[in-house]
Write the structure tokens for this entry.
Amino acid sequence: MKIVVTVKQVPDPNGAQALEPDNTIARDREVVLDPGDEYGIEEGLQLKEKHGGEVVLVSMGPEKARDAIRKGLSMGADRGILITDEQLAGADALLTARALAAAIKAEKPELVICATESYDGSTGMVPPMLAELLGVPQLTFAKQVEVDGQQVTVHRQTEEGYQVVEGSAPCLVTVTAGIAEPRYASLKGIMAARSKEVKVLKLGDLGIDRGQPAETVESIADADAREAGEIVEDDGSVGVDRIMAVLQSAKVL
Amino acid sequence: MNGREDSVDKARAGPEKAGVWTWVEDDLEVLGVAAELAHGLGGRVRAVTGTGKPERLAALGADRGYVVDGLDEYDAERWVTALTGCLGQERPAAVLLPAGAAGDDLAPRLAAALDAACVMDCAALRAQAGGLLVLRWAHDDRVQERWLAPPGLPLVAALRVGGRGTPPSRPRPMDVRRLPAPAASGRARLLKRLPADPGSVRLADAERIVAAGLGIGERELLGPVQELADLLGAALGASRPLADKGWVPFERQIGTTGQSVRPRLYLAIGISGAVQHTAGLKDVDTIIAINTDPSCPMMARAQLAVVGDAREVVPALVERLRAFRTERAPV
């Protein structure tokens, strides 16, 4: 089974965050492979181990995003494709999906795995857009994926519980964090990754135009905080005393 | 359906402005927002439904209802085909969908099919000179972003629902168009549903919630946390990271693709502020937070913020509550 996993380089979730003047997240700080993508890579690798085939990582981003691909390759993916072009800076979701779709189409994968949403943008728009542009069914919010021949079955999370949804390959799956514990790259894997292919594609190679941006972010503000409440340091009993008092005054007790 | 204009509409309104479309099933809240937005734009309201009742749509401001007969089980490809079929040649100003497992799945796919702008997790929309201004929750609701969709380009928006109540009555003469559901793609099939924990109260309905986050430190503490919830008559909730780790079932998750909550008491244990639906939390009467980090957003939001280790505070609180219950128990 040929599997494409989309990956993205994002600012380190553990680092300080800052915004550029155009409200995109500053990427001049520490950047890492999106932690959500590690689950997708792990799931792809496990499916390959069961069913054979190849795991190809596809990313769009600055040249530096090669490091994110390299990390996935050191986990065991076979090769990578990096779409990088100055014209793609600040791309909106649909342009991102169009660029990814063009690169992925050429690969003719049977399965495309994406994270449910990226750590930095947190919109979750790209995967369903990608499925539409690829003309394949989408099986989203999967916490479990099984493959049997051309049948792909997922356990899909919903507000009410789970749905068991079956799709036929080629299809696109979005996986939730926790679907599989991402493996650490072994030293051997890190060494091997150095010689794995990372193909670079420009906008012109994909046959698409920059176009006009659709939605843009105008401003970002912290969500309103409530009026400051009471803060107590717990020393073993004072915290519990105050909680009991508040519960009683709120007539919970 | 075929872009045919209604002659009565034309006579009354002159050249038709781009309409605001919605997909409405049980929850009519999104229709109220669409009617409000259409009012601001001077456009008409089109409501598409598979199972909804047309007369309810007319009462809440829809100018035209599309009833797609036989459209029941959600399937992204089929829904996109149905909606684009209803749209025909029309380029809408906006298509509003309720956020959730189906809406979040559908909105971006529809946007790609329509070559439209798209914004998720929307709190509010407003028409202004430069286009449609959208307020959206982002990054676990710690921030609100203002997005702008340019005029002339349709906007597909997934709107957070819950809390606006039933939209005001705006009775309209509505024309109803019925069309058959497109054939199922057959490429994605729902095989079965696995229910959520049946013994539990739905979080969305819970008056009291005890919610745990990664800050509880160890899985073993979930036992005392559950006992605490039981003692308070509260439902157990969890932050997304905890659900992601598989420590609690997904249906206990509050937030992104989880549930929107509006309890009267919210006791947050080891949740830093990565709690979704802060809008809902604003209406909570009493928020109590227990966390080692006094500077985290959740503690700032709490009426009472207890700085301490959940592993010590929770068992102590359980013990105190047990004693309290015993004292109060009828002899």
In short: The domain at 203-328 of chain B is CATH 3.40.50.1220 (Rossmann fold). The first strand of chain B starts at residue 20 and ends at 23. Chain B is about 30% helix and 25% strand.
